[in-house]
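step 4 of 6: structure.
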Amino acid sequence: MKVINQFKMQLDSHSANESFARTAIATFVAQLDPTLEEISDIRTAVSEAVTNCIVHAYKEKIGVIYITVKIYDGKKVVIRIRDKGCGIENIEQAMQPMFTTGGPDRAGIGFAVMQSFTDKLKVSSKVGYGTTVVMHKTIASRQNDRA
Amino acid sequence: MKCRLAVSGNMLTAYLDGEIDHHSVQPVRESIDNAIDRNQPNSLVLDFSDVTFMDSSGIGLIMGRFRETSRLGAQLYIFNPQPPIEKLLLIAGMDKLAKIQTNGKKEKYKR
């Protein structure tokens, strides 16, 4: 598969950057002429992944969040969000809806939302080294698109 | 993210405005909880008409406020979520905790 365009950024894990990260990625993906629903799905999924880096991976300290977005042939978007934080001991458990280590005001559905709002989600993690989340989403072609 | 509170009889309404995420949600949570403590309402309305974005931090906000209202035996309402927000609310099963009402101004997704 051929990469048509790509975008990389690194940002500090300040919570004020949650809004910046999802807006930047949504703006980059806008070149594929997505529907409002597709853009909203991407914004939400990215917000979940970036918030996980801030709330769980780095907790009280400030670390770096590494983001790459690649656009492939056929309007396929792959978003990779990586941290070098604490890592996840049990990914399967972390991905269970309602499971959270984030206290009573976190819903524990971040991974479930990423899964629902993208076509494919892959999470890999190593305790003490960090976590990588890769999300795939294909933007549907419109009638007037050329093949 | 702004939050304006209004009390009418036994009903407390929180008019939410802007984007709800982990960064913006905390002051909103505190001001709603303070108003619940002061007013002991029998219904709490979270008005989402002017909410332009929400992630699961908003679900956490609703779940936490549901705990507060159930403690008081009060009913929780969610008014006018935009379609993307309603989608998230339903995925998270919030229709089981709150009565979700839309006022018909809801627009369909446009291409």
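step 5 of 6: annotate
 - The helical segments of chain A are 17-29, 36-57, 91-94, 110-117.
 - The CA atoms of residues 19 and 27 of chain A lie 12 Å apart.
step 6 of 6: archive
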